[in-house]
Amino acid sequence: MVKAASVYDLVQPLVTLGQEKRLNQWLAKYIKIPARSSVLDVGCGTGLLTAAIAASHPDVTVIGIDASTTMIAVADRKRRSQNCTYQTALAEKLPFPAATFAAVSSALFFHHVHFELKKRCLQEIYRVLKPGGRIIIADMDVPYTKLGWALSLGAWLLFRQPEIKENIDGKLNGLITECGFEDVEKPARFSGYISVWSAVKGE
Ligand SMILES: C[S@@+](CC[C@H](N)C(=O)[O-])C[C@H]1O[C@@H](n2cnc3c(N)ncnc32)[C@H](O)[C@@H]1O
After folding, report:
1. What atom of ligand 1 comes closest to residue 113's alpha carbon?
2. 22 contacts: CB under 8 Å, gap ≥ 6
3. Closest Cα to atom 17, ligand 1: which residue?
4. What three-state secondary structure class fits 104?
5. pLDDT of residue 12
6. Residues whose CB is less than 8 angstroms from the CB of residue 159 and which lie 6 or more positions away in sequence, other chains included
7. Which tens digit of pLDDT belongs to each residue from 6-60?
8. Distance CA 203, CA 195 (A)
9. What tens digit of pLDDT does each residue of 54-71 get?
């Protein structure tokens, strides 16, 4: 993972077909966060989305968590700021009390974890969100272009990870609803294979 963390920022624009900046800036603008509240970015990697949210919302506190200490070390070195910090933690066991965050974001994390873990992570996100809080998730979904299909099936054939296949089969959508979220929508798509989900925790 040390190597992955050090080259991650170079690889990410390639796997998103040049859309990495556009995607993160779109998410950072779309997420609605009340002033002086806190946001959690789950599976933050090197902090690309975490830092984009912090830059667009200087009046909120953003925390990025990731299971990998080397990813967190890179995020901390490159993208820590006054309102943006990082810590090592598991998405399925978030070290925060219930109803802590006004919003939770996550980009390209869920295709890394298997179905039961996807569910546990969504349940944990639900727990730490305040009532009325919003989630915004960008991840692999049923592809919608030929290139998107080629990339997704290529990744699936290369890595043979059921976690990826679950996303290509569109299983994330139902899980979000099953975990209690309401008003589940897909407001945007990127790169032929990435969907954005938006949903809220009821009051
Ligand atoms: C493809 S990267 C996405 C990073 C970042 N969100 C972005 O968009 O650039 C996926 C990240 O999920 C992290 N991850 C995998 N399993 C995890 C878990 N159970 N809890 C927290 N992070 C995890 C990996 O360490 C990796 O940094």
Report:
1. 16
2. 190
3. 67
4. strand
5. 83
6. none
7. 788 888 888 888 899 999 999 999 998 999 999 999 999 999 999 999 999 999 9
8. 26
9. 999 999 999 999 999 999
Angle at 31 between CA 41 and CA 142, to 5 degrees: 80
Name every protein residue with a CB atom under 6 angstroms from any ligand 1 atom: 12, 43-45, 48-49, 66-68, 71, 90-92, 107-109, 112-113
In the chain, where the domains are located = 2-200
| CATH architecture assigned to 2-200 | 3-Layer(aba) Sandwich (3.40)
Pure H helices in the chain: 2-15, 20-30, 48-56, 69-79, 115-128, 146-159, 162-168, 171-178
What ligand 1 atom has the least distance to the C-alpha of 4?
A: 27
Task: Calculate what percentage of the chain has a pLDDT beyond 70.
Answer: 99
Q: Tokens in use for 140?
A: 């692999």
Cα atoms found within 13 Å of the Cα of residue 40, Cβ hemisphere only = 31
CB 103, CB 128: distance < 8 Å? no
Query: Residue 131: what residue type?
Result: P
Residue 2, pLDDT > 70, answer no
Q: What percentage of the chain's residues is helix, strand, coil (to nearest 5)?
A: 45, 25, 30
Parallel, antiparallel, or unpaired: how do β-strands 101-107 and 182-190 relate? unpaired
Based on DSSP, count helices (H) and strands (E) in the chain, helices before strands: 8, 7
